[in-house]
Structures are given as structure tokens and as C-alpha cells.
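Forwarding the complex inputs:
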Amino acid sequence: MFRWLTLAAGLLVLAVLALILVFTVKEAWPAIQHEGVWGFLTGDRWVPNDPDGPGPARPMYGALAFIYGTVVTSLIAVIIAVPISVGIALFLTEFAPRRLRGPVITVIDLLAAVPSVVFGLWAILVLGPWLFDAYQATHGLLGAVPVLGSIFGPPQGPRAFMTAGIIVAIMIIPIITSITREVFATVPNADKQAALALGATRWEMIRGAVFPHSFGGVVGAVMLGLGRAMGETIAVSLTIGAATQITANLFGSGNTLPARIVQNWGDPGIPPGRSALVGLGVVLFLITIIVNYLARLVVSRAEIRMKGASA
Amino acid sequence: MTQSTDKVLSSDGLTFADRLTVNVTETATAAHRASVAGPVVLDLANVSVFYGSYEAVRQTTMSIARNQITAMIGPSGCGKSTILRSLNRMNDLIPGARVAGRISFHGTDIYAPEVDPIQVRRRIGMVFQKPNPFPKSIYENVAYGLKINKIKGNMDDMVEQALRGAALWDEVKDKLKMSALALSGGQQQRLCIARTIAVKPEVILMDEPCSALDPIATAKIEDLMYELAADYTIVIVTHNMQQAARVSHRTAFFSAEVDENGVRYGRLVEYDETQKIFTNPREKRTEDYITGRFG
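Prediction (whole assembly, two chains):
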């Protein structure tokens, strides 16, 4: 009996996933027909204009600029958040005095409870102007350097890929930190003592005993954070600048898939505008699935390399 | 001691290694210690171990001689493991743990403020109760200590040498890339010994190394200990009196006592040649334990 219940619960999750996919694809279908699958994925223009207006003769719905924006802001967020989160988790599990541990954990968990719209408002009102100065200073410093000069290009305002990336980083730090901390806490004391008894310093012990043990779990934590980063809507929408452009310039404005959806949902343009927005949702969903699958591959490969073959 | 780990540890300009050699004879001649055969490596004088304000082990005085196997036996709670773990400062890792008295390694107080506990552990290795190989390959387990201590030389050769030293090479030479966790318990424990001797410590502390193993694996480890005693000084804590009788040269019997305030503590009762402890102990308490009347 219990077996069937658990099986049913498992199947229910799959069924819900499948239904979401089926219905969103169905809703998005008119837009995909309008552009073709390839055209929808690789088109870099999104012009839901009235054909009688000053825009092009027919509306254009291409998702590429938003895919790009989603990938770039999520990568910025993860690159910033992972070292900080792992650092906090290590501090809490290995270094912090016991009486400091509780308060720090509470503060970090509180960070997770701040609504994302509040983060977004704080970012444009407080962080944005300050960051804009920093962007200008960075560009002044690196502008003439090849490659770096185009990545840290001329700032177009406080709203930019970088601003969105930074605010999302702050938002995913609590998730990554709390899971990473739990994972670190499961490292057997015996392993740590073994390393220390060989004359390892604390850091050598962490590299030799804590990290190999926790690699899979930490990647899982990063994936959860990445999922949240890719799906984050309001805070990104407020901070990224809502520009449909693909540029290497991290200080430039852009847009992401979910941000575009909420910005346009109320006024999606002439058909198949609304379908196209649903299509963006489908694309986001598929990217998330692919990223998770790749993460699993990475973990299993790395564990074999690190821990040795199992038989 | 390698160049890279040979840091100046004291204000008089002597390195740790220098001080060790300088002081060997001085300690060996200390008359009030129980007489031991050969030069003294570790010397405990009135050692008490505290956890917070609780004095877990009181007033232990004993010397441990080079290339001998010294066993510590006694009932649970007698402090034998606590004393063992204070010998390479593993107790430092327990919050509130503190050692009073003096533990000297070749005459140098290992708890002196200028002594780096990492140096101490590098020279006084430890094998634990439960085999605890890292979740890495067999090769990487042995190589780990060599890497962190930046020991120069051909890594493959040093790994092989350590595995041979632990009587494990023939069993694993074809599967060095395999996960250490796939080995049997006895093999894992010998791997842990290999890992310890790879960094060439002087002393190997063993904390009930066979308690998680079957009799055949235990016999292999005991044989190995005998061989290792040629090159290393071994201190073993064991619950198994027969094991102490079989492998050790000298035996220290610890007992759990209750003081006038009703507080339990551990105490060294008798320390002598193993043969004497097991056939003709001086103390009644030892005899009672040996003959199974308590503990």
C-alpha cells in the first residue's frame, strides 16, 4: 500500500511536469509557427509592432537576446555568489566560534526572506547609482585593454547586466550557503582528523577532506542557486534596463526571458505576441532542464576522477 | 625533517629539529621515570588532561622508548585514549581541552607556545579506531600526506614504498586508481597505516586500530606492527588485553576512579614491561583487571 502511495506521489510530479510542458508548448505554438523553431530561438529582434506603425512590416519574435541576457546575468550571479557562499559555509562549519554560528545563520536566512521586489527597489535606488560610478571607474581603467575593454565597456546607466547579476547574486547567496553548510557538516569527523593527523593545516584539511566529500552536494547547491538566478523576474526586470540587445558589454543594458515576460504580459502586442511570451517561458524551462542534466554529468564524472573508480 | 617544514620555532634560533637532538640525552637520563630500554622518545611528566574544568585524566608520568611498542590498556573511561590523543595534540581540536604537566618529544615540550601543532602531528602520526581513508583513490590517499608536507621525490616510488611498508602493495598494486572505500576494512586500515608512514613520522599512535576488524585482519595488523617497530616507535591503545600481551613491549594500565567528590577520572595505575604486567603485576588493581575481576 505504502509502496503504491509513494509511487503515485512520484508519478504525480512527473505528470505535473509533463502537463506544464505540453500546455505551455501548445500555448506558444502560434508564435513558434510564425517564426519557425529555429527562427524563434535565434532571432535577436523582438518587435511586437502594429504593422501599420513605424516598425517593420510584420511583428518579429526572436528569443536570442533574452536567452543571452538570462545566461549572462545568471553566470555573473553564480560567479559572484559561489565563492562567497562557500566561504561563509566554511567559516560557519570550520572556523566560527559556536556562539557566533547561530546569529550568522539567522541573518543569512533572513536574507532569503527579503522579497525580491524589495531587493530590486533597493538595487535601483541605492546600489545602482553607486555601481554606476564603479562601472565608470572600471571602464576608465580597463577601457583601453583589448577584450577586457569590451567586456567592461562604456556604462549605459545604472541598469545593466552587471547590476542584475550582482543583485541576483545577493539573492542566491542564502540558498547556496545553507545547502553548502549542511553538506560540509556531513563530512565525517574521522576524515578531517585523518588529514590533521598527517600534519595538514586547516586549509589543507579542507581541500583534502572536506571538498572531495562535498563536491556533489555543493554542485547541487549551485544548481539550485542557478535555477533561482535564471528564473528571477522582478529584481532583474527592475535592474537590467529592458533593452533587447546582445552585447559583450556587461555594463550595458539587456533583458532576460522571465523579465521580458512580465514586462510585456499586459501589453503583448498583436498576435502572436502573447504566444511568443509563453514561448519564452518554454525556452527558460528547457534551459533549466538542460543545465540540470549537464550538472549531473559533471558531478558523476568528477566523482569518479576524484574518488576513484568504484569497482 | 625536510627543509620546507624545518621552521625556526624558538627564540634562541634553534630549529625544532636542533632542540630535539640537543635534548635527547638529557631526558634519557632523567632518573625518576620508570626505567625503559633504549632512548626515550616521549616523556610525560605529571600530565593531566582537562575538558573545561573537568580533569579527565590525572597526573600521568611515563616515558616511551624508541622502537618499542607501548600498549595502553584499561576499562572504558580510564583516559587511555585521551592521553594518546594528547601526545600529538589531537586534543587541541576539542573545544575546551587543555593539558597540564609536560609532554616532551625528544626533550622539547610539545605544548610550548612556540611549537606548531602541525609540526608535532607531522612527526607523530596517528591511526584511528575506525579505518578512515579519504574518499579518494588508493594512490591519492597515500599521496595526500606527501603532497601537503611537500616531500620531494618520485611520488610513485614513495607511494609504493609506503604501501609495501604497510603490507598492502601486493593486494592493491593493480588497482591504485580504485576508490579506497572499495577495499575491505582490514585493507582500509592498512591503507591508513600506509598513509601515515608515507610521511615518515617517528612515532605512530594507534587508537584501538583493530577494534573494527575481524580476527584475520587483526592478525595482519599485529604482524605489521611488529615489523614497523623496527623503524618507528608505536603507542597503541587497545581494549583487547590479549592484543596488548601479544604485541607490546611495555604496557601501561589505566583505571577509572572516583574521587572524594564523586567525580570520575582516569589514572595511570601501573606501567612496566608487558610480561611483568601480565604475569606479576605490582598493583592489586592491575591484577584484578588482567584476571577479569573488573572492567
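The longest helix of chain A spans residues 273-307.
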